Structures are given as C-alpha cells and as structure tokens.
Amino acid sequence: MTTLTRRRWWWLLWCLVAVSALGIALYSVEPYLVGDLERNRIPLNPEVAAHYLSIAAHAIPSSLALLIGPFQFVTRIRVRYPKLHRNLGRVYLGSVVLGSITALFAATFSVSGFSVQVAFYIMTAAWLYTLVQAYRTIRQGQVQLHRIWMIRNYALTFAAVSLRIYLIIGLMLQESFLPGLTFDDVYHAAAWAALLVNVMVAEYFIIHRTLKPLARRQQVIRPPDGRVPASAGSS
C-alpha cells in the first residue's frame, strides 16, 4: 500500500470517527441540555432520585470529550496551532474526569444488571487510568507515549458510539436469527463488546500506526548490525 493510499484510508477513517462521534454526542446530550426527563435515553432507577442527575452530569462532559477527541489526533492542527491543541486537551481532560466520576454513580444506580455494571466499572477505571498516563507522559515530554495513551483513552471514550452500533447489530441478529435472546442479553453483550473490541482495535492501531513507523525510522538511522557507518562519525 502506497503512502498516498494509506493517507486516504486514514482520512476516511478519521471522517467516519468524527461524524459518528458528532452524531452520538448530539443524540446523547440533547435531552439533558433541555432537562426533559421524559426523553431520557437510559432506564432510570425509581428508587434513586439522583439517578437522572448522575446520567445527565455524565452525558454532557462525556459528549464534549467525544467531540474534541478526533481533532486532537490531526497532525496539522497540533503542528500549526499548538496552543489550541493544548487548550482543547485541557478541556478534554476535565471532561473525562467529570464523565468518569459521574459514570461511577450512574453505573451504581443502573437497573441494567450486574454484568453491565461490572463492564462500566472496568471501562471507567481504564478511562481514568489511561488519562492519567497520558497526562503524566506529556508533562514529562514523552510525546510518543502520550499519543499512545491518548489513543487508548479515546478508544474508551468512543465506546459511547460503539455500544450503540453493537446494540443495533445485536438487535438485528436477534430479530433475524436469535429470537430467543432478550433485549437485556443483547445490551449486556453490547456493553462488553464496547469495552473489549475497542481496546483491541486501539492496540492494533497503536502497533500499525505508531510503533511500526517508529521501528522503520530507527532501522533507517541504524543499520541491522547495530554499527554506525564510519562516514556518519566523520566531520
């Protein structure tokens, strides 16, 4: 695959991510911005009055992080507008922190079942951990490691999109081939898929888009035998 072809595929993938992130962010956050309880997207726990508040407080900053994320990976923006990149990064960081804290409350009050709660707890812990690592590495000037941790973090942010995609696919399969499954069965599988599949895709992307190019550049700089050519040390 030529460099031009890879670049075109990269921009196609970026556009798909950005458009789907925009669509889900607007879909998820709109009812909570207007405070319409009847249009809430998630079943509420009738015994916990604060459940709706925790969902709304999670949806708004998480949707903001979902929107910001794709633009943080555009090299042209990072290079030409470093101040904008840093400011958006700070907003993204704050959004994920708020989204994570409120996600713990929302998952605790969830009526979707223990399996979904465990999936969301693990996802939230990984969401916070990868964010901390991304912040730590950029503070230490480790740009490549920062990029790797941010890929992992945004893969978890993007689980908001993936969950709905897997849910739609699962419901289609249920209707056509697996009528014995309930909606809860499909939802539980979608929640775990949003975690596990996104993590695997992120690691694949890290290897092929970050680590392999680095390895190729290092091979160009240093020959396979590890010896520096004599001409390289001459003045």
List SSEs in N-to-C order. Answer: HHHHHHHHH
Question: What is the structural class?
Answer: mainly alpha
Low-confidence stretches: 228-235
Biggest sheet layout: none
What's the helix count?
A: 9
Overall helicity: over 70%
Strand content: under 5%
Key traits:
235 residues; mainly alpha; 9 helices; 80% helix; globular; disordered C terminus
Structure description:
This protein is mainly alpha-helical and 235 residues long. It has one domain (10-219). Helix content is 80%, strand content 0%. It contains nine helices and no strands. The two termini are 38 Å apart. This is DUF2306 domain-containing protein.
Question: What layout of secondary structure does this protein have?
Answer:
Blueprint: H1 3-33, H2 51-72, H3 75-80, H4 82-109, H5 114-139, H6 143-157, H7 159-176, H8 183-221, H9 230-233
Helix pairs in contact: 1-2, 2-4, 4-5, 5-6, 5-8, 6-8, 7-8
Protein name: DUF2306 domain-containing protein
Transmembrane segments: 9-29, 49-71, 91-108, 114-132, 153-174, 186-207
Keywords: Membrane, Transmembrane, Transmembrane helix
Concise synopsis of the structure shown:
This protein has 235 residues and is mostly helical. It contains nine helices and no strands.
